[in-house]
# Entry
Amino acid sequence: METRKVQVTGGSTYTVSIPKSWATENGVNAGSVVEFYPESDSLFMTPKTEEDRTEGTLDITDLHEQELMRAVMTMYVSGFDIIALESTEITTDQRRTIRQATQSLVGLEVLEETADRIVIRDLLDSSELSIHNAVTRMRLISLSMLDDSLTALADLDTELADDVIQRDEDVDRLWMVVSRIFRSTLRTPKAAEELGLPREICFDYHSSARQLERIGDHATKIAHLTKNIEQPVPEEVIDALEELHADTVDVIDKGMDALFTDESSEATQLANEAREAVRAIDAHARTIDELLRDLDPARAQLLGLIVDSVSRSADYGGNIAETALQKAAPTP
# Structure
């Protein structure tokens, strides 16, 4: 840390010098233009650049299938607008994996493709992205997945279960978008300014989006388990699960409503109600487990896993409520 004294020039203009080492590292010279971004009691300064698009290069020679998929996703989330994938010779399997990764991420398109190089570019304008809209969409999809997964269980509808499993890709795509937006706000104050949101709120949205992504995962797990159940589930178990599901959705909705409201007192009330309800849901889940004791052990185990997934979804709603409480709390 270095300190500088604020000077007054011309009688009305405040000036302050910047460290020479920082200026040298960032190419700032006499006549250079810098940008200032005010945020509460802080003022961020960054060199003005002509080209805002960031490029990254990755050697994929030893990367295949899931490793390659994760590598592309990592570069996307990290904020690279142009991703160059290089190797002495890119194999057919690698090309297939790269196409799958590109299709699973929002805004990516192959720009250039040769024998030893594939260039992917993000076509989205970052200033047009909305982290609020992305999280809202995640909320709608994950809750509909949870609802449909239990409907598929009640009706033993394998087609509906398959549909739930496919929709998990939509939630994952949105989670990647939220992660990319959030990391961009950490990297540069300009990104937060374009979003029109403080970085603290972006963090709250990112944390909550993670919980919604996990709810989608549990809905997918229920759908997979449903496909392994051949005989109808006892009606009393289905009824109990529907009650547990309704209570779980109430927790998630209250947590999300608390997160999105700008009224601190309302947010605090909703969030506290959601957190209190989680305790009752845990007790309710234990009563359903008691109902399963009379069933065949293998069958009881499958249904027990489903009860656990619904209960855990409520826990994630409680985590969102906790984040909403922190957001509503006074700032120092």
About this structure: The chain has ten helices and eight strands. The longest helix spans residues 297-328. The CA atoms of residues 28 and 47 lie 7 Å apart. The mean pLDDT is 90.
